[in-house]
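Supplementary Methods, section 5.1.

A reviewer requested that the exact input to the structure prediction be made available. We therefore reproduce it here, unchanged from the version used in the analyses.
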Amino acid sequence: MTKLLSALVAALFAVVTLTPAFAADTKGEATSAEKKSEKHAAVVEGWEQQAKKLEQVNAELTERCRVMTETLATSEGWLVHAKEKIKSLSGQVEQFQMDASASRNKFEEDFVQLNATIEHERAERTLAEGALETIRGDYARLQGQMAQERSLRRGSHQRRIVGTGNDIR
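The structure derived from this sequence is encoded token-by-token as follows.
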């Protein structure tokens, strides 16, 4: 771009200096042409400085764009990795939830079965305790009857001994 501006300045200067209207012999006209030429040269120099600034800004923006592109590529890689990790962990969470549900169902079934077994055992215990009480009552009654029979036997046996004992004397 600076080459183009330099070429433009050179061409403009050549046109100004070679044109017959500018090549006048009078001193006032030559001074006017020189002033115009200096003015044009100052404008061209301003354009060249502006072009240099724009080239510098362009280089800076290009570098920033390159850095941002690299950052974006890195961020996209991380994002893809994070999405894969989320998908994997979501699958694991679903599996854990299914396992927990199955375990909960088995626990509930086992709990119902255990309660049924406990109730059955309680019923059997109540039945056994009732039978035991009946047996204890029967045993106590039989003990009483046996004691009574023994005492009757002893009494009748003693009566016989006492009765036979009189005969012996």
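Helices lie at 2-18, 27-168. These observations are discussed further in the main text.
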